Every structure is written in C-alpha cells, then in structure tokens.
Amino acid sequence: MGANLPPLDGKGAEDSIEIEGLTCGKSAFDWVFLSHHHNDHCGLADRILPGIPILSGEETHRILDVISDFTGSPRPEIHLHFKSGQPIQLDDIRVTPIGVEHSAADAYMFLVQADGKSVLYTGDYRAADSIPTQIRQLLGGQKLDLLISEGTNVRIEKQGRNAPQNENQVEQRACELMKQYEGTVFVLCSSTNEERIRAIHRAAKSAGRAVCEDLFLTAVRTQREENTLRFVAHYTSEEKTPRTYAYFQRYFERRKLLGAESLAKISGEKVIFVRTSMLPFLKSYLDYRPDEKNLLIYSIWQGYRETRPVKDLLAFCGTHGIEVADLHCSGHAYRNAIQELIGVLNPQALIPIHCEAQDREQFKALHPNCLMVRDGERWEVSKCWKAGLQFYQ
Predict the structure, then answer these.
(1) Residue 9: how many CB atoms within 10 A of its CB?
(2) Residues 6 or more apart from 131 whose CB is under 8 A from it?
(3) CB 130: neighbour CB atoms within 10 A?
(4) What is the pLDDT of residue 219?
(5) How far is CA 247 from CA 52, 108, 195, 251, 255, in A?
(6) Which of 77, 75, 190 shows the shortest CA–CA distance to 124?
(7) How far apart are CA 12 and CA 46, in angstroms?
C-alpha cells in the first residue's frame, strides 16, 4: 500500500492504485500487513476499505501516529500489533514477521505459509545475517516455494571502497568530521532512521559535542539520550501540532524547550539535526553565531540532491559558508547481499519488486526461475514449480 516516491522534478505524482476488494468495490481481503512505516510501503493505507484489519509492529504504529500529527493526515487505523519471530495464525494462513535491519525502525520480512506452500516477502532490508537460519527453522525442512525480493540496489555489487559499509563506520567518520570543525555541525538524515541517529549521537559524545534535537525528532524516537538539548523549530507549536505538543509536554519540562536564539547563545560545540523545512530556524540560529566555520553532514540518498527542498538547503549552505560532507550508508541490500540470500534459501521461484523495470532484469542472473510479474497481475504460488522453467523462457 505504498505511495509513489516524490518525483525529482518536484511535480506531483499520481497514485492511481485501485485493487478490487481492497481499495474499491466489495471488501474481499482479510488482512493487510505493513512491513514498516516508510511512505512507499504504507502511504496509501488510508485507501483500504473499512472493515479490513491492518496489522503492524507496535513501533511502526506509534511512528505513524507522530507523523500524522505533524502532517495533518488522518491517524492510521491499525488494529493489531505483531512481534518478530511470533507467528500469527489467521484461519488457514500462518504469517511469521521477521525483524530486519533497515533505515527504518521496526522493519520486517514476512514468511507466509498455507496449503503446504511458503512465500517469503523481504520488505526492505540491508543485510540478512542470521535470517536464513531462522527461516529454514520455520520451514522445517520444506522448500521455500517463492521469494519476493526487493531490488533497490541490485545493480550495485557493493558500496564504494571509501563509503561506510555500516553504521559503526558512519559513526567513526562522523566523529572525525566533528573534530575537524570548531563551529556547529548540522546533520541532514532521515528522522526515522534510528540507527543513523544513534550513530551520530555516539560520534558527538566521542567528539565532546552536545546533541540538539527538535520536537519532532524527539517525539518520533523511543530512545532518548540524556544530555540532549531540545529545541522548537518554527513549524512546531501548540496551535500547529497540538497532539504531539501535548504528548511532549507529558514527558518533558517546558523550560527545556529552546528557540533558535536561546540555542545559539548556549556555549560549547554542538551537533544539530536538521531537515529541509528548517531554513527559517537555521537563519535565525546563524544570525547569532555569524563567525563560525560550520559543517553540514549530508546523510541521505544522493538522489535527493535533485529535489527542490534539498537544493534550497544546499544553496543556503553555500550562501552562509557551511561546508557539506557526504556520509551515508544505504538501508537497502546490495547485489551481493541479495545474491547471498537467494543462494542460501534456494527458492523454487523468485519475483523481484521495489526496483525500476530495467533493474528487474538483473535478477535473471541470480535465479533460473525468475518471474517478471506485472503490476496488477495475480499469481498462484502453485504455478511457481509446476509449470517448469520452459514456460517462462
């Protein structure tokens, strides 16, 4: 139930998805499972027909609630929560969520078993690690009939030699950068990439810097480090974001909330998490610290540089003498990790998803029975091995 990613040219994108029995017509689906909270996986959940239960991880539900507070969108109607490794028996269908590492907290694969068949949907993941062993145990010696695999990075064998391969390496490099600058270090990263945020916190601690989070980042996270300065950006107030503001007030004293001027006047070196919507806040902050040599750590996908909000932020940095350093580790598996997962699980058939049409062709070299299923096309799992390879050639 994902929404289209924002186009790089800034134009609106139409989401014309209509699925009979799920988004229109008479209800014909029993359940919807959300793999994680990213918009390209659940952004159209509000189109699901009333009466169809939606299931997610508990943290996913909480994060979507906070996001809805800040965007003004309806709260998601999530009915049940699941946990990693705990199977859910839904009539004759057994679904086992399997927690994975991704650039989103609370992300899952799903192993679906019914009628003696088994399907694994990978969702989005960075590395499989011990997952194949867990899946083989759940299969109990049976073959995996179908693997539905994401392929965001399937064209790329692995990250560049000098690029960080994991969050520990991001942390190490971030700490080195923080020690090179006497001014403020700003960090542009996803507010829901919990592992990245923790890595930046650890790097700041090692570099002797205070970390600054705004109200949204504090509200969307479950882990809240001590000795963190918390500030209110220009778009946050009791009037603009009443639900989250009330939530925040229950857990934090009001006197701890700082504005741009108050934050700027606090002495000591800082690390401030920022977003593209914070330009008014950043301008006010820099007005009170005009002579610093500052740095922006760019820690998101390079493709976003082509979007108008990021272009505006980078232009702002150029105007105000803020240097920019790229430091990012993708939350998606590269070709070698995808190939390893396929090789270990050895499914009867493979369906690639979550990639461009030309990228799907890359999967043909990774499995002899690779199915190129079109949008809206239904597929019966029993066909995966009964039809044989010749049928697909």
Answers:
(1) 9
(2) 98, 100, 109, 125, 341
(3) 8
(4) 81
(5) 29, 27, 23, 7, 15
(6) 190
(7) 19
| Contact indicator for 28, 22 with CB cutoff of 8 Å | yes
- Angle between helical axes of 58-71 and 242-251 (0-180°, round to 10): 120
Enumerate the β-bridge partners of residue 370: 350
Q: Residue 326: pLDDT band by 50, 70, 90 thresholds?
A: very high
Q: Would you say 354 and 333 are in contact if contact means Cβ atoms under 8 Å apart?
A: no
pLDDT in tens, 228-265: 888 877 666 677 777 666 766 665 555 566 888 989 99
Q: How far apart are CA 104 and CA 82, in angstroms?
A: 16
In order, the DSSP letters of 98-124 are: EEE--SSSSEEEEEEEETTEEEEE--S
Query: Strand order of the sheet with strand 54-57?
Result: 32-33, 54-57, 80-82
Can you tell me which residue has the tokens 């965001």?
152
Q: Residue 192, CB half-sphere, CA atoms under 13 Å: how many?
A: 19
Calculate the alpha carbon distances from 170 to 62, 200, 204, 357 in Å: 27, 8, 12, 31
**Phi and psi at residue 51, to the nearest 5°:** 95, -10
Phi and psi for 278 in degrees, rounded to 5?
-100, 15
